Amino acid sequence: MSTFLNFWVNGEPIELLVRDDETLLDVLRNRLMLTGTKRGCGEGQCGHCTVILNGKSVNSCLTLALEAQGGQVLTIEGLSEGERLHPIQQAYVEAGAVQCGYCAPGMILSIYSLLQENPCPDEKEIKEGIKGVMCRCTGYYKVIEAVKRVSAVEK
Amino acid sequence: MEAFCFKAVRTVSEAIDLMKGRPPGEVALMAGGTDLLIRERQKLVAFRVLVSLRSIPELSKIRVEGERGMTIGAAATLDEVASHPHVKNRYPILSQAARSVASPQIRHKATIGGNLCLASRCWFYNRSPFWRAEYPRCRKASGGDQCYVLPKSRKGCFALQSGDTVGPLVALQAKVKLVSERGERLLNVEDFFLGDGIEFLDLGPDEMLTEVILPRPPAAGVFVKFRPQNNLDFATFTLSVIPPRNGSGSKIVVGSVASRPLRARKAETLLDQREVGADVIAQQAAEELPLISFVRGSVEFKRRAIEAKLEEILKAFVSPPSRED
Amino acid sequence: MSAYRVVGHPLPQIDARERALGAAQFVSDLKLPRMLFGRVLRSPHPHARILRIDTSKAKALVGVKAVVTAEDTPKIPFGPRTEDWTILAGDKVRFVGDEVAAVAAVDEETAEEALELIQVEYEELPAVFDPLEAMRPEAPLIHDKPKNIVSEFHLTRGDVEEAFKESDFVHSASYFTSQVYQAYLEPMACVTDIDPTGKLTFYLATQIPSMTRLTYAKALNLPLEKIRVVVPYYGGAFGAKMETNLHLIAAILSQKTGRPVRMVNPRQEDFMAGNPRVPMYIDLRIGVKKDGTLMGKEVHVIGAAGGRAVYSMVIVATACYRVDSLYRFQNLKTKGLTVYTNTVPTSCFRGFGNAQMTFALESSMDMIAEAIGMDPAELRIRNGVRTGDVSIHGWKIGSSGLAECIDKATEASHWKEKRAEKRFPRGIGLACCNHVSGNRAFAREFDGGAGLVRIGREGKVLVYHGESDMGQGQKTVFAQIVAEELGVPLDWVEVAWVDTEVSPFGMGSFATRGTVFGGNGVKAAAAEARRQILELAAEMLEANPVDLEIKEGMIFVKGAPEKSLPFKRAAEEGLYRRGGAPIVGTGFWVPDTVLPDPVTKYGNISPAYPFACHIAEVEVDTETGQVNLLNYVAAHDVGRAINPQTTEGQIHGGVAQGIGWALMENMITEKGRILNPNFRDYVVPGPLDLPPIKSILVEPIDPNGPFGAKGIGEPALNPVPAAVANAIYHAIGVRITELPITPEKILKALKARKR
Fold it and tell me: To which CATH superfamily is domain A2-78 assigned?
């Protein structure tokens, strides 16, 4: 069964014919070639598929594409403005939070979501806020530093 | 391969209509989908029609009914429940439980209705077909005649109730509203759970959970979710404790250790009476619970940990321990 | 502050932007025209004969372009070190997850559906899962060998029995280190492509591009020039991404279909059929004098190889004798066995056997310190190797910062005060480690590193190397070294993807060799490029090349800075003067290492030896057995930190992984089948599980490393489990010698102690 999906991705209107059982993750990666969003586990455990749907971070592997009908999706590609990194990305790079970078898109969008709800999180709140994304390279230390950096700047 | 078709509905009656007269399981209701979609991929469920409840406005409303309590639409997300000011202030154990689930990403989609109805979980059941093939006689997965958790059992399924908000809802004496073409009915959350891992909920195949109804708030209680690591895994157990008011009404509810939330009733009575110490009450509670050994921990480990955590909690509600030795 | 302009400065990775933008193309992101999607059919049995495979229904499914079995492969036995691999299982399957057949289809879903249509008839065989069982004479044989032994390692030095006689105390203990999953974030993946002449291009997440090519040429029965390996961005490895059948299966599917094929392991399959850490049984006996002098050590190691040998025997060998060059051992008797089991093939994971043995040795050192009444830190310092030592196996310790690491770590953690207090259930524990920066014994062919540095007409510098950046920051370190050597700003330097068509042959990134070997290789290449551009500049400036310097992209005459020339101008002019030829410097570095004697194992195997000292502080909940990590200090001898930021990042990640191994990660298996093949039930540390950490960099400046650098990758993890175990012992008097240290084990041990 296929249905037309009309939604916005990174501010652009998109119309696609999608299968009813297709996930948002697959649509983004395979149909729209936005490969910044990654698949790490397919079960909502690793968070590498995180996107912002209607203002809230979600696991796109556990979201059917049709759930985004008429909605707004923000992927990592939509965060930067042309060449200019979003302040979160800038802080992330400067703090040394990038190692292999596979979790970076999911992590950065998680941070984006966290700071929307809580612009000045303390360390515990930061940890709770990023726990939905699994990182194996950094031990999270420099990720937390990046969040502190960007939330201090925003202050 | 024909998968399923997706139907977004705008009203509860549209959803009910779609379920009417269909063979059980052919139509599935989805609010957050964070568990349903995984089970579908693991081929634990197969449905032809997926009804998306996200577009039913009244289903996610959270309404404060003054001092009489509040109603929470079944499709309110765990994040919405956790951060609602009235829930945080007057039903803090529910707010804490909702907040303790998984990750922000999951909580932005998963709903309180979904958490209540969360399919009972088992180490041998919640797997893809490749792994389940090793357990072909599982009663829950393949209608077989064996249980791999309790091989000596002659019947029954011991899959665990796993939604974290269940314990607090029982402790808060919440009710659920169930709707079908035959009308509405209200059930205590405690009675919603039937205690079997397979026939898990008192929810008909054509019924839909629409609302969670909370009575007047009781005394603020304590919620603890115990898990080996602080991260995403399901709880080894949850504890929801409400202290007594005027010598009655205590609740000690243990979640995720059985197919239904368990109340330690004898311990509750002791807590009501406030004549013995926290240690005695905690011990009573740990001993009266029918626990089973499971991959997450043996019975002995769970009893010890439950007792230890309960004692910690109860210290705030009763006088110092009665043990003198 | 650094003595250098670029080297020694904390800098973000040079491609951090691309990764943070989500623009970096990882292997599993690559899409080629007409690309197909492959999936593997895996054995559900740990040990079985394959009687019949019927692929007809799968082949008939619309969208399926190829279904292959062993019949479609050259059936040449091969392997990275042994010859017990086949691309697809022939007569037998030897572990749950063994590759039986594969499918290429137009999309992933069709490929998955096709798998279900392949019918395989098995005859189950008795299976064996534990190496101790597999060693028994009556155990079912897994390969065509009279015993399930992959290899044996023996080493004797001096006289251990004499040494024990002379000891005041002989300690003995037994350990078990668990099989754990690297949990790199991007599952194993590859894209293969084939051209009309049959030449295969592999886009691989691989730590060893050049060596992989050798193994695959043999497996596919192709001449080497028909195989090209390209390494895009990839999501981590930690040792796991070496040779794997997944790549070869994709190649076979490309051969069959004439089309590119992408294969990515679904996570559950990656758990099941990856290459987790070699589980080991370790028995130790150590004799010591009252004054703390270590007299002798006897070691027995038994490691499980799994259903086929990847690098497990090298890992067991490493476990057997690498620690002998941490302390000044004089008498040794060592035996190691690597044993086939009907379980997933085990292989490299950060630490490579040294991690397993370090847990055992450092736990034992603590017990010894207690037995003789000595401070554990003091015991290490007393016995630790020092700069200038030649160890018992002939390892030349060019620099040792071990003592300084211990001093700094104990100071930063308030060791003395905290050890003296009895603050049950809080405790503090220490562990040290040594490691190598590259291991000559790993490959017979050669030891060394090489580079190629190209200066373009705009002055842009492009660096080619043969190692692998799995996220640890290899490219950045190479760029820094080249920028420093050439005297140009860092952002003028780019590092190319490794492509075996152009890149030098590199052994690859393992054995913590990348910085030293690859670094020295690109440094030599940069020096040669520098020589060439200075020769040109000298002509242009009418000066002597010897009198020229390059700073911040300006070439000038020493002492006469007004006689100068922009680097970019020299590069451009060079092009015009030389018929368009760019400046290309190639260079290489061969260390002073030797292939150890096969019998005596004697010989200096590495140019630089890193050391570390970790201190963990814990509080144990004696009611629930949970361990709360309060603080962690990690002091590392890194020679010189080329990039303190990336070095610290490695320490952070290594400690986190080590904590996971110590306390929470466990591949739970039953009859050879992993029961927790997902991140819900196989729990890796999250941000709330990890303690505050202080990392300390100790820089003795090694004589052999580039700018004095040594490696960091594996030492970052090695000491962690022992530091935690020792802290738990100090906290509650309970000694756990088996990983992981779970709450249940702690409670059981506490209960046993009470009785």
Answer: Beta-grasp domain (3.10.20.30)
